[in-house]
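dumping this here so i dont lose it
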């Protein structure tokens, strides 16, 4: 098993018009780790995550994924990087409504230029692994939220991308399904060695699965540490209040 790459942000700022959403963010995400980004709504979590695959283009600073300078990629390089190195899972699943389950999962392989047959075969084996063999021909709209997010996860895993970016992937799920998916994600990350970056506004979720946690507040990274360090030495009152509110 080869570990997913380290991700490094150096003095990254993102400005939307006159609004600064991320301010001078520097962060080291270790190779092959499960790294959580935690913070309140509007803190800048999605902006930070999206700067990693440049769905958001930083106005200043540098993002590196392994030996790739993401901030310097041209259009063709960026397309290859997104197709081969990163995969993303979204809160609202982001499935294609007019394609059935198996074709949703096969889609990233088709984008890479794979023929339909082998792409579907790879998709099918991920769907089987997630207990979804019976619904390969179903439309996403007919599936439960938990099943839809397993389809979303299968789609993110099918290309073997070494970096998995997850933006509040479990927020729309009931508590039991959420817990099961947290465990599944942790297990997959251990088995596959990927670098997984997951956003959550739920400190309990972050503490349950993450190796390290960064707390974002008002566009700034206020602390990046292990769960134990956050608990024993919160960097400021905001971090302490977040943990206290979650009974941690
Ligand atoms: N495309 C955009 N245009 C303008 N402002 C945006 C855009 N996306 C996010 N913002 C603003 O930037 C800030 C950070 O947003 P975001 O990164 O989505 O926060 P989070 O994911 O932590 O809820 C918020 O104030 C949000 O309103
Ligand atoms: Mg967000």
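and the seq i came up w/
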């Amino acid at each position: 098993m080869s570990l997913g790459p380290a991700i490094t942000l150096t003095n990254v700022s993102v400005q939307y018009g006159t609004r600064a959403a991320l301010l001078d963010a520097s962060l080291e995400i270790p190779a092959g780790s499960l790294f959580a980004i935690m913070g309140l709504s509007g803190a800048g979590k999605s902006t930070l995550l999206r700067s990693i695959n440049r769905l958001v283009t930083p106005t200043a600073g540098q993002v590196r994924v392994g030996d790739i300078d993401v901030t310097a990629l041209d259009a063709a390089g960026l397309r290859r990087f997104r197709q081969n190195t990163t995969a993303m899972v979204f809160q609202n699943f982001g499935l294609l409504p007019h394609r059935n389950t198996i074709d949703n999962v096969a889609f990233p392989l088709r984008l890479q230029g794979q023929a339909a047959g082998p792409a579907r075969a790879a998709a099918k084996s991920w769907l089987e692994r997630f207990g979804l063999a019976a619904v390969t021909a179903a439309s996403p709209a007919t599936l439960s939220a938990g099943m839809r997010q397993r389809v979303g996860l299968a789609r993110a895993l099918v290309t073997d991308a070494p970096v998995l970016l997850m933006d509040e992937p479990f927020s729309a799920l009931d508590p039991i399904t959420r817990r099961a998916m947290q465990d599944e994600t942790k297990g997959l990350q251990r088995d596959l060695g990927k670098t997984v970056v997951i956003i959550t506004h739920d400190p309990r979720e972050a503490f349950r699965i993450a190796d390290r946690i960064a707390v974002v507040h008002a566009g700034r990274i206020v602390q990046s540490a292990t769960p134990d360090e956050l608990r024993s030495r919160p960097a400021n009152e905001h971090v302490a209040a977040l943990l206290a509110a979650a009974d941690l």
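The longest helix spans residues 175-192.
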